[in-house]
Amino acid sequence: MSYPDQIQRMAAKSLEKKLRGSNFSKSQLTYPEDLQSDDQGHYIQFFINEQENANISFSGGSPSSAGGTSYGGGGGTSTLSVKRAPTKRISSSIALYMPAQVSLQQDAKYGEVEIGAATAAAIAAYKEFQGSGDFSANAINSIGAFGDVAKESGAEALRTALDTAAPGAKASMQITSGKVTNNRMEMVFEGISRRSFSFSFKMMPKSESEAQNVDRIVNMFRFYMAPSFDGDIGTSRTMIPPATFDIEYRMVNGNRENAYLNKISTCVLMSCNVKFGGERVGFFRPNDKGAPPVETEIALQFKELEILTRERLGAGY
Prior knowledge:
This protein is an alpha+beta fold. Helix content is 30%, strand content 26%. The relative contact order is 0.18. Mean pLDDT is 76; it is low at 15-23 and 56-74.
């Protein structure tokens, strides 16, 4: 084993030991410390689903409510076309204060398709055939129209060729004739995009214990959005995908979800950007690890694994 590989393995073991200890062993990491008091009211909870064959595991993991596997968020039938490797929800979770605003963006994809004269004639003939099972007189007339369409298309092709050889020729002919060929454009539905969710939290701890929690929260997000090697990290070239996240908008009153806000299906963490410090550099009193910053900002970008249809939206997503 080469010296760089030994260093990498020692670093990985050190990280595993560190994370297996007090950092992630709590059942729930929160910011601020009084998050679940009546003064706060609302919060966002992030549950973590670790792939069952992940190389680095943590004690205290427990199956999710779906029999140890987690697909598509808070239950129900998922629209995923390929069943993913099973995951288990770990016992730790992260709860953060509700930002002033949370947003939802839902996009549908439409494309413009050019419908020429030949296309219109073909559609007319096809509709006649579908209705009667045979070509009627109207369908035959539509097919006969292909001759005229071909002549017109040939003339248009010639004008386009001339325009390529002599720029402006096509426009000149159209101006002279007083007619402009313009095929119809129709909108065609092409699909919908996966929804994405962005959250930004500015954390200014008021105590040493709260500063420790902020550090754990940042490291926990960064840790679980990263993959791990399958087997020996010095020789393996196979990676195990990162963990997935289930996100819920929750209320302190009754410790339940807020059904007025949309549910979020199982997500992957696409980016985790961290800023330390505010308008000026500031740190708390040093401890054994170092000196925690007085201000930490974290920006998270999540994207859902599945594409949501009416059926899922009707269930509150």
